[in-house]
């Protein structure tokens, strides 16, 4: 019985240390907001790169990618500013992001 009690205590302690690693916290929202504001301009060249490679006409792809990148860059910047201003509040649920993907990712079309 004593061994079982010790194992239960150890399991509870381990789970108590592991659980916060997966929880979203205000600091995560603040970090994400700052990263999105600082990386918003990267949306422009990333979208130009994606669009001109997918388009049959490179000029049309570059033109479309420019405007798509400007739109998503502004959206990412506004989302980042929103996260910075509202980081203490758990809105949206669990300090989630209002833009997907949460961070800019190379080669991922938004």
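-> sequence recovered:
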């Amino acid at each position: 019985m004593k061994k079982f009690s010790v194992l239960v205590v150890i399991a509870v302690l381990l789970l108590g240390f592991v659980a916060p690693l997966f929880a979203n916290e205000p600091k995560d929202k603040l970090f994400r907001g700052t990263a999105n504001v600082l990386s918003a301009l990267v949306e422009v060249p990333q979208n130009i790169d994606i669009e001109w490679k997918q388009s049959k006409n490179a000029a049309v792809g570059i033109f479309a990618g420019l405007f798509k990148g400007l739109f998503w860059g502004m959206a990412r910047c506004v989302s980042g500013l929103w996260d910075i201003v509202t980081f203490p509040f758990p809105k949206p649920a669990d300090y989630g992001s209002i833009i997907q993907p949460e961070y800019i990712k190379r080669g991922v079309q938004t």
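Residues 58-85 form the longest helix (28 residues).
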